[in-house]
Design brief:
Shape: globular
Mean pLDDT: 89
Largest sheet: 6 strands, mixed
Number of strands: 20
Distance between the termini: 63 Å
Length: 435
């Protein structure tokens, strides 16, 4: 009786295991046969071609673009999203973002608000940016004591919240008294600066390791002074070569590219020579720095529109005189330099440099209009916010091609004729999902 009962249990278990195996196989097959979506528009600006594509459709399955096909060859199984006369483009990439900064006096705001407060407020700003077509952000450090952007990215990756892809640095490295230090309080006050203040190679090296520990994948370093922080000079080189060498060496050891905030020409040269992947701002670059950047493949993120945004003297910023001087006496020179660098073969990347909350997200694309003023064509300006930063990041985004992640946006008109059409994004797909 016991043996018969045991055999019965064994056969039952085998049948159960077989059923589970068949069911598991069915689930795997279902997962492999996820819906195919075809996105159809009048024209496609794919991020790499010199001309718009006409009469084509983009096929998407799961999170990826599987093909770009003739509109007459869309597979019968595909669910069609017909955008009519719209222009379809890759999702835009802001390569110099500060999502947790709110308000014009960001250092004061940094001292008044907690990391948690800034993270929640910053996330609301990111939602607006995603709806405006910015599907990826590279954070150029942020005014946060802790690691709010890294926690937001983690929540997005876990599917808890919806937002743009996030890359970049948690903080910016600064010297004592530099652009990332708070320089407008008395020495009796004990303050935590908005940047990571490091002096000497060993402190700098430890800061890079700490950034890596908590999820940053880039290192941001303020090689020179800044325009918007009090008490320093954008024309001054702040980090020593010994310190900068330690930063780049440790970043390389951690597999983290370096973005170098550098206005002064000598600071740009040092950062390029020591191996920074990108120069942020580059305001006072010269012919020598242009040649160096071209030779070494260093990317230039000039952040042009922010100067125009803060041109209004009614802003009454702590550093308003610096912006006024730039606008009145140097803006036209800088635009000429950007055009010269672009013609020489330096890869120019769109980075907006505005904060993340309280700014109208539709104005961010005006960075592209100023790049055109500097000499880029409309197609080149769009590529500066799509395929060129994707190349800088080393990520499968920024273009409409098989194998790339399905980040797509659409506008009603033709941005190659009127770049301001990008201020009116009508359709956003991120990771293959319609936002």
């Amino acid at each position: 009786m016991n043996n018969r009962y045991g055999l019965h249990r064994m056969h039952t278990l085998k049948r159960l295991l077989l059923s589970c195996t068949l069911l598991l196989g069915a689930n795997i097959a279902l997962a492999e046969e996820s819906p195919l979506v075809a996105v159809l528009a009048k024209q496609i600006v794919d991020g790499t071609s010199k001309q718009a594509l006409v009469g084509q459709a983009v096929l998407v399955r799961d999170k990826h673009i599987t093909a770009v096909v003739d509109a007459q060859e869309i597979p019968a199984e595909a669910r069609i999203i017909d955008l009519g006369d719209a222009t379809l483009l890759p999702g835009l990439i802001d390569s110099h973002a500060h999502p947790l900064m709110a308000g014009d006096d960001y250092q004061q705001s940094h001292l008044q608000n907690s990391s948690a407060y800034k993270a929640v407020k910053g996330y609301r700003g990111m939602e607006g940016l995603l709806l405006a077509g910015w599907t990826s952000l590279r954070v150029a450090g942020d005014a946060d004591v802790y690691y709010g952007n890294q926690d937001i990215r983690r929540l997005i990756d876990e599917g808890v919240i919806n937002g743009p892809r996030i890359f970049g640095a948690a903080h910016y490295l600064s010297i004592t008294g530099g652009g990332g230090d708070v320089n407008f309080y008395s020495p009796e006050q004990t303050l935590i600066a908005d940047g990571l203040v490091v002096d000497g190679p060993e402190e700098a090296r430890k800061a890079v390791r700490t950034e890596a520990k908590y999820g940053a994948d880039w290192v941001k370093v303020l090689v020179t002074g800044a325009f918007m922080s009090v008490g320093d000079n954008p024309r001054a080189v702040q980090f020593s070569e010994e310190e900068m060498r330690a930063i780049v060496d440790e970043a390389n050891r951690q597999g983290m590219p370096v973005m170098a905030h550098a206005h002064a020409a000598e600071g740009i040269k040092m950062a390029v020579r020591l191996g920074a992947r990108s120069i942020e701002h580059g305001t006072y670059l010269d012919d020598v720095t242009i040649r160096m950047m071209k030779k070494r493949g260093t990317y230039l993120v000039p952040t042009l529109y922010i100067g125009d945004y803060y041109n209004d003297s009614r802003n009454n910023l702590r550093q308003q005189a610096e912006f006024d001087d730039y606008t009145e006496n140097y803006r036209h020179i800088f635009l000429e330099k950007i055009g010269k660098a672009h013609r020489a073969g330096v890869k120019v990347v769109a980075g907006v440099d505005l904060g993340g909350y309280g700014y109208d997200p539709t104005v961010y694309v005006r960075e592209l209009a100023v790049l055109m003023e500097a000499g880029l064509t409309p197609m080149e300006a769009i590529q500066a916010a799509t395929s060129v930063p994707a190349e800088m990041l080393g990520k499968p985004i920024g273009s409409i091609a098989p194998g790339k992640l399905a980040d797509l946006i659409a506008v009603a008109g033709n941005p190659l004729q009127d770049i301001s059409e990008l201020e009116r994004v009508r359709f956003v797909m991120s990771d293959g999902e319609i936002v």
